[in-house]
Amino acid sequence: MKRFFFTCIAIISTATVQAQFNFSKADAYVAKLGRLDSLNVATIADTLTSYFDAKEDKARAIFTWIARNIALDPKAIRSNDNKKTDPVQVIQMRKTTSLGFALLFQEMCSIAEIRCLSVDGFVKNNAEDINNPSDEINHSWNVVQLGQSPDKWYYVDAAKGSGYLDKKQSVFTPKFNSTMFFTKRTLFNQDHFPDNKAWQLGDGPKAKKDFYALPVLLPGAYPFGLTKLTPATGFVKGKLAVATKFSFQTDTEETISSVELIIGEGNKQMKPEPMNFDHTGSTLSFSYKFKKDESFPVTILINGQSALQYQFEVVE
Questions:
Q1: For 237-258, what is each residue's pLDDT tens digit?
Q2: CATH number of the domain bearing residue 104
Q3: Span between the terminal Cα atoms of the chain, in Å
């Protein structure tokens, strides 16, 4: 399978673009098809896309099928083993790394005559990654072109759309995440940094170091479109018994019914603590006074879903 590497692109806009599509028909169609175990890559792609006329529906059907039928391979991911990422192998094994997801999505889009490219880069998985840039590429995703104008390029991450690994990257939990298709650019760029910055659509961190300084976005951040994060950096120095202010911009019609804080992890993890929050307009805000002077990760839950993670150092 041919890989793509890029040095420049002149048409990427700095504007934030969020496509507003209704993909319920495509998702329902894919659900009826099932696993398609006996078919090869080309036949699966044709089966998924021939039902639709619009390229965005074809691409969505491909994304949904891959995310629901291919699993992340913990062993290969832990060892950074990308030997079995060819689409034919991925279809046979039904598990792969993020690169395998990206290459399979790209291949199926190509069969459907949709321009799609694979992008290699970096993601942060937990608070330990904050200010700790990876030396090696650790994630891959796609960009899809549906038209000639700059705002017709879209992000797709089928690997993250399929579910997630635990912190030790030893257990995969399938959980379809539809928000990883045509994701809002400002949100996606907080969570992904391309190895070649030419493939950063719109505004985002200027350097890998800047990206790794940001808070960690977790799957629960996407449904609420969390941007303009305060604190803006992932590592925060706080003072004992002095309120730390948290504030985020949201982009959702979903009601936010609960915000909770989890301090620590493992044996030192405390129970989720409900926050007295305010959600006025598009701004979600709350304050918290830390009660112990030490270093610990802080996870923010919204409606019971892990959304953000910080690393705090609290002193007297």
A1: 999 989 999 999 999 878 999 9
A2: 3.10.620
A3: 56
Give every residue of the chain whose pLDDT is below 70, as ranges: 1-20
Q: Which domain holds residue 61?
A: 24-213
DSSP characters over the chain: ------S--S---SS--------HHHHHHHHHHTT-TT--HHHHHHHHHTT-SSHHHHHHHHHHHHHHH-EE-HHHHHTT--TT-SHHHHHHHSEE-HHHHHHHHHHHHHHTT-EEEEEEEE---SGGGTT---SS--EEEEEEE-SSSGGGEEEE-HHHHHEEE-TTS--EEE---GGGBS--HHHHHHH-EESSGGG--SS--SSHHHHHTSPEE-GGGGGGT-EEEES-SSEEEEETTSPEEEEEE---SS----EEEEES-GGGPPPPEE---EEETTEEEEEE---S-SEEEEEEEETTEEEEEEEEEEE-
One-letter identity of residue 143: V
Residue 9 located in a structural domain? no
Pull the structure tokens for residue 189: 């760029």
Task: Please tell me the total count of domains within the chain.
Answer: 2
Q: Does 234 lie in the same domain as 206?
A: no
Tally Cβ neighbours within 10 Å of residue 284: 23
| Domain end among 213, 241, 269 | 213
What is the model's pTM? Answer: 0.91
Query: Which of 172, 191, 213 is the endpoint of a domain?
Result: 213
- Of the candidates 274, 228, 271, 277, which has an alpha carbon nearest to the alpha carbon of residue 256? 277
Peptide bond into 223 cis (omega under 30): no
Same domain flag for 248 and 107 = no
Q: Smallest Cα–Cα separation from 1: which of 96, 75, 80, 71?
A: 96
